[in-house]
Each structure stands twice: as C-alpha cells, then as structure tokens.
Amino acid sequence: MKYPLQPEEIAMHSSRAVIWDVDGTLVDTAELHFQAWRALAASIGKPFTREDFAGTFGWRNPEIIPHLFGPIYSDAEIADLGERKELLYRAEAKKGLSLLPGVSVLLQELHEAGFRQAIGSSAPRANLDLLLDVTHVHNFISVVVGMEDTQRGKPDPEVFLIGAEKLGVAPANCVVFEDAPVGIQAAKAAGMKAVGVTFAHHHPAEKLKAAGADLIVHSLEEVTVEVVRDLLEK
C-alpha cells in the first residue's frame, strides 16, 4: 500500500476494524499472571500449577476461580479473590511492559490507514487501562472491552461482538488478533477473520489452526495493512 493514503482509501478502511486480544498479542504478561495466581492460591491454601494456568488462560476470573478452587465461594467472595489476584498482577505490571515485536508499527500503520481499533479481552478494565498507560498506545485504541463488559467468556463471541458494536463496524469487517484457541473460536463465532499469533508460545500453531484461524504468524512483524485488507476481501 502506498502512503500517504488518499481520502477515499481512508474512508473505506474506517468501516473496517482490528480487535486486539492482549496477552500474547499486544504484550506477553503470562508469567506475571501465573505468579499472581500462584500467590493468591497459596494465600488460601490451594494448589496452582502450570497446567491449571494453561487450562484456564484467557478465561474470565468469575469462571477461573470456581473451576480451580471449587464451587464453594459466593459471588462476592469470587469478586474479592479476583481483585486480590489482579492487585498482585498490577503491582508487577506497573514496573513496565513492552509491546511484542511488530505491534507498535502495525498499530501506527492501521491507524494511518483509517482502520478502527479496539481491545477485546477477558481481563479486568483496570488491567487494560494500566496496559494502555504503560505502553502509550491510547491514540490507536478507540474502544476497550474487558471483563466487566461481558457476561460470558471466550470461546463465546460476546467480547468481540460488543467491540464491533462499539466501533460501529460490522463483524464481517473485523479482524481479530489472538494467541489462544478459545479466542480464535470466539472470533470465528462472531463472524470475524482471525489471525493466530504464536510468538509467546502459549499455544502451538496446530491448535490455532484447528480452532479456525484464517492466518497464523509467528510474529506481528509478518502482518501489514495489506495483509489485513486482503483477509477481509477473501
């Protein structure tokens, strides 16, 4: 694509959007989350393993806590436990987060091309606001959808459908960047294109492909505006 874009090209792309998952696509904070969950579990006398973490990665806290620690907590207790875990996470995240390779350039180029951009995540809003602050990407993201905005976690498509609605873009005109099979499944269930990213090594390419990814890349350095546009035109 040649720059600068003509006004009619920007107008065309403004009816198209990219929705970003966070962990494993924008940044890799998996280890921070694992350590926070492990500390929380220890404080309530519960085990927490790498397998527990991998099996629930991408879920919402209200789903993770009863699944891992048993259906013994009230809604208020689940909310309290979730907030305790997130406070542990945010204390470490505040020390600094780096965008993954290719993200900064792609955010900028999509913005310049007129694409709308959103975050669609299972994380609490406070975590997402912290991410935007620490990585300085506010100018590129016009909509943020987090845990508090949804009732159902991925692979349900709710988070991405809400993002598309808030952006004012039809689901068929959206591309989702994800690193987890449940996220890919959610994107496809929403009627969107899905790009699977393997850089953080959370899930192998085979699982992303089986989940329905339209494109799988190791790094977002492989993705350009042309790639996104071509996906939407298929």
Fill in the keyword field for this structure.
234 residues; alpha/beta; Rossmann fold; DNA polymerase, domain 1; 2 domains; 11 helices; globular
Chart the SSEs and their pairings:
Layout lengths: L6 H7 L3 E4 L9 H14 L6 H7 L4 H9 L5 H19 L9 H10 L3 E5 L4 H11 L7 E3 L12 H10 L6 E5 L2 H9 L3 E5 L7 H7 L3 E3 L7 H9 L1
Helix pairs in contact: 2-5, 4-5, 5-7, 9-10
Give a description of the structure.
By secondary structure, the protein is of the alpha/beta class. The chain has two domains: 7-29 and 97-233, Rossmann fold; 30-93, Orthogonal Bundle (DNA polymerase, domain 1). The protein has helices at 7-13, 30-43, 50-56, 61-69, 75-93, 103-112, 125-135, 158-167, 181-189, 205-211, 225-233, and strands spanning 17-20, 116-120, 143-145, 174-178, 193-197, 215-217. Helix 10 (205-211) links the parallel strand 5 and strand 6. Helix 2 crosses helix 5. The longest helix is centred in the middle third of the chain and has 19 residues, at 75-93. The two termini are 17 Å apart. 41% of the residues are buried. Mean pLDDT is 92; it is low at 1-5.
